[in-house]
Amino acid sequence: MGIPLTEKARILLLSNKERLSRDFMAEHIVSYLVQMSAITPADMSDILDEKTERLKSAALLDMVIKKGQGAYNALYSAFKEQYSWLAPILHDGVTRDGYDSDDDQGYSTSEIQTILSKGGVPPRPRVYVDRPQLIQMIRHSLRKLKDNPGFVVVHGMGGVGKSILAAEALRDSTVLKVGKVDKGELLVKAQNLCARLDQNQSRNPPRNLEEARDRLRAILHEQYPCCLLIYDDVWSPKVLQGIDVQARILITTRDKSVTDSVAGPVYDVPLGDGGFSEAQSLRFLASWSKQEVKSLPPAAKAIAQESKGSPLILSIIGGLLSDSPHRWEFYAEKLKARNYSRLRKASTYEYRSVDEAIGTSVDELSEPLQEMYKDLAVFNPGVKIPGKVLSIYWNMPVEDVEEEIIPLVNKSLLRQEWLDSLDCMVYTIHDLLMDFLKHLVPDQKKLHTKFARRFAEHCGNKFETLEDDSYIHWHIAMHAAEGEAYDILQPVLCGWNWIVRKTEVTGPSSLLNDLINYTPLLEDGDKRMANQIKSFISVNAHLLIQRPPPDMIQLALNSEEKSPLYQMALNLIKQSKCGTYLKWVNRDNQPNSLMLASQVHDGIAHCAEFSPDGGSIVSCGEDGTVQIRDSSSAQIEKTFSGHEDDVSWCCFSPEGDLVMSCSIIGEVIIWESLTGEVVKSVPTGSSDMVVMCQFSHDSQSFGFCSLSGNIGVGDLSTFEVATHQVCNAGVSSMSFSPDDAKIIASAYDVTARVIMTHSGQEMVSYTNHKYHLVWCDFFPCGNRVASADAAEVHIWDPESGKREHMVSVKGAYILRCAISNNGKLVAGALSDCTVWLWECNTFTAVAVHHGHTSWIYSVAFDPSDERLVTAADDGTVMVWKAVTDSPANLHAA
């Protein structure tokens, strides 16, 4: 067989077969078709063997369909010669390689619009954003049907835009809107479809579903053999049982199980949540508000993020904004508060609100299944829920859990995936669905209590024996606290065996997070123990991540002898039947100023700084990453990966919404702190190491300095960079003045310079240092600056260059310094792994901190000046009390 018939040619032949077979005689044209090699002599013999002229003509048409497009083109040419009045019937199906046809193959735009209108395919909504990947998924599955009966099932959660995507994937079909219908309503829809499609208008409507199904099957087979039938918004398998007409059918549904009982191949197109990306969301909002994306107010981004890309939410918000164009902030706040019920607006979607769209799916569940679904409100958004956890929660075997939960998965209320490491299914709930559940079950305390007690019963209160299921070790404390099950909370915060096991499974950060959040809920005696454990874990966190981990009892013997933790360690040793422990003597019993130590980078940690609110720490290192961690627990909040080599410095913007970092190969990248998305990769014009980067105090500019001797100053709105050549040697640090008009720079040529920020003009040159400079900065008042070389810290006037104070360091080198936010203290990181603090007026040492075991590359104060953060050569970041009341803290001063 040659080239197959085009869809258009096939439709023309089949739909006109009866008429054509009456109006021509096969004997008149078969010889011509043989001459054109369209059919063979044997084919001609078979055709002419038919008993009647009509059967011969019908056999010829069947043969042309079988032979393909070349035979069709030859038949058209034969008709033009001998049956000129029939040729126009076939004209539109002739391809470019045919005979005498000058028209393009395919339909014109007007023809397509006519077909769309006749086929009932919904027009595009008023505001439309293309989602080509999802549309291509639908088209790919449709191609798999070819000419055979079968189903393509487009399924996803409510409000994802299934109907719109299906309509975009094809626009030459008859759409039957199904929805939730009973048997009588379904019969009416089937009767209407028969009436629309049947060319024999004399027949009476079918009297029941069985007759309607048979009628439709015959109509589609005889009159529309190449059509695609679309059943939009199918809710029940009974619908398809009633109108399964053995045709090519596309279905949109929330429940992919609707095709479980049909015959023929079924191809799934899972859309899942199918939401817009942030860029698509902003384009969508821009179209609704009739403006360009770049002109959208800042609240537009918040709406895009809080909507989770839901087409339904964005459509509702867009409609509301078209009525009230000045309410961007108002609707953003409603979304942040998850107040979906107040966001109501007629849109291109069937539902006027998010609650209505999701609630409709939940209402379709059986009562027992609804209760199971409500039980899931106990979990936090975004977490993966292992089937093994649900097995204990619901007190049923894992296999039964997986069986019971299938309807929730099928109805797009839950997503599942198999996890080999756990040997069970893992489930997730879309954020919008979880928000709906939280509102549906306002009293979640009972659920948390039930959850915590089920696990306590399961392990007999020996929580350390619980299996690592990738969930319970991370979250049992939260469930006990939320359920006010304090008898369970106490052992999971203070029980030694549980602490050891949890630290092994989750690492110290998760345990610290639990202790910080839930210790206040304990009774006073337990609070003291929990606080002791928190301090112990904080100080030893960098050791506890080692594999194999150190003996925690031995570490606990380093605690104060009168502390509950020390006494508990002694009791555990007495209970132990094996092992050797060392009891330290002549050790310092003074409280340690170290608050937190954590191994955060593989290799060197080059820099660490606090966020503007002090709640987070940003750090960077030799491993090429930038990380944001909780400043109390060191729990990871965000990791930025984008640099191609060591990251040398990082910092927050004054508002905390941006992070900037630079690398040893000349990269400067500005990131969004919440999402980790790159805002701009700034061209520096050099591959030399960028040593430091800083934001201006007014958040209008940014700066960076490099070993090439340059300082770059950029505009945060345009990202245009002006480069100032400061010296021929490398620049080791830079800082903006409090009013951002000037920059101070320290260089390896033993000189500190004050230059104008935008012009680069040098105002003052300070040359009183003996060695190359490692640091410089303005005091908050702006009329004093400090600079440091390897041996001395100088304080001087930035207008005159006159020195006011100087302090020398002996026995070690100064590596980096920092000025407190109130201007009263200077901190210095020294090569002997200590951190010194000096009072600025007299330059008296007020504290010395010991704890690092390698060189310290950065030191910074928190906004309150109560804490310091340091980053060191061994990859650790440590947080300290800036100044303690203990005079023993100065034993090395």
From TrEMBL:
* Signal peptide feature range: none
UniProt repeat feature WD, residue ranges: 598-639, 640-681, 849-890
Which PROSITE patterns does UniProt cross-reference here? Answer: CARD (PS50209), WD_REPEATS_2 (PS50082), WD_REPEATS_REGION (PS50294)
Q: Name one GO cellular component term.
A: cytosol
* Gene Ontology terms: biological process: apoptotic process; proteolysis; regulation of apoptotic process
Domain CARD span(s) in chain numbering: 5-81
Any idea which GO molecular function terms this record carries? ADP binding; peptidase activity
A Pfam short name: NB-ARC
Q: Which UniProt keywords apply?
A: Apoptosis, Hydrolase, Protease, Repeat, WD repeat
Q: What is this protein called?
A: Putative apoptotic protease-activating factor 1
Q: Does the keyword Repeat apply?
A: yes
- Gene3D superfamilies membership: 1.25.40.370, Death Domain, Fas, Helical domain of apoptotic protease-activating factors, P-loop containing nucleotide triphosphate hydrolases, Winged helix-like DNA-binding domain superfamily/Winged helix DNA-binding domain, YVTN repeat-like/Quinoprotein amine dehydrogenase
> Is Hydrolase among this UniProt entry's keywords?
yes
InterPro entries (UniProt xref): APAF1_C (IPR041452), Apaf_helical (IPR042197), CARD (IPR001315), DEATH-like_dom_sf (IPR011029), NB-ARC (IPR002182), P-loop_NTPase (IPR027417), WD40/YVTN_repeat-like_dom_sf (IPR015943), WD40_repeat_dom_sf (IPR036322)
Top-level taxon of the source organism: Eukaryota
